[in-house]
Amino acid sequence: MWEQRKDGQADKQLETPAPVVPAPAPAQQPQQITPDTLGALNVLLQILAKKEEREAKLEAERQRRDEARDKQREQNAKNVGDKEKLRQARCDHMKGGKNKLANRKDPALYQHTYINAETVIKCLICRMVWKTKDTTEYLWRNGRKIRNHTKWGWEEAYAWLKSSTNQPSSSEIPQRTSADDVPKDAEIFED
After folding, report:
1. Residues 147, 151, 156, 158: is their CA dihedral positive or negative?
2. Beta strand 109-113 pairing with 169-170
3. What residues does each domain of the chain span?
4. How far from 151 is each of 5, 24, 92, CA to CA, in Å?
5. Contact by Cβ (8 Å): 161, 105
6. What is the C-alpha to C-alpha distance for residues 24 and 128, in angstroms, rounded to an integer?
7. pTM (2 d.p.)
8. Four-point Cα dihedral 154, 155, 156, 160, nearest 10
9. How many H helices and E strands in the chain?
10. What are the tens digits of pLDDT across the range 28-71?
11. In contact, 73 and 131? CB cutoff 8 Å
12. E-strand stretches of 124-168
């Protein structure tokens, strides 16, 4: 084989050595099981069994801890809900706190209208919310009737709302997209 130089001239012929093939490894004889290897295997199996037992105990302990934690979280959440209901049941929904004027009745209620036109009455003190279907006996929440802990329904809250000095609030009003949406009695102002 001739090797070419960079200038294109042929150089002397180089011999490439034949690839070295490693000699085949001698066939391994299967190890025979002796009492020493059996003893070592038994020790290894005992170690692995103890490790599995420890891991199983740790997993059982972790699961027990998680269940106890979940149970406590549920209890705490229930307590928070119960405390809020108790605070709402005790609230008289009137402004003034302990220093109320005897002849002045100003409820701490306001009316809010959501963007979907749903109207609710809210207490500023205890955060109670009355919806239009609520009665003195039941509150309607998520399609279910629950016991009314305030003993005020929509009608009672609305009656007190009339004497409140608070202004109603509302969400943003969606823009009208066509002339057909404009009320017929709308005034048009021109310069």
Report:
1. negative
2. parallel
3. 37-90, 104-174
4. 105, 95, 11
5. no
6. 88
7. 0.52
8. 100
9. 2, 8
10. 766 677 777 888 888 899 999 999 999 999 999 999 999 999 99
11. no
12. 129-131, 138-141, 144-147
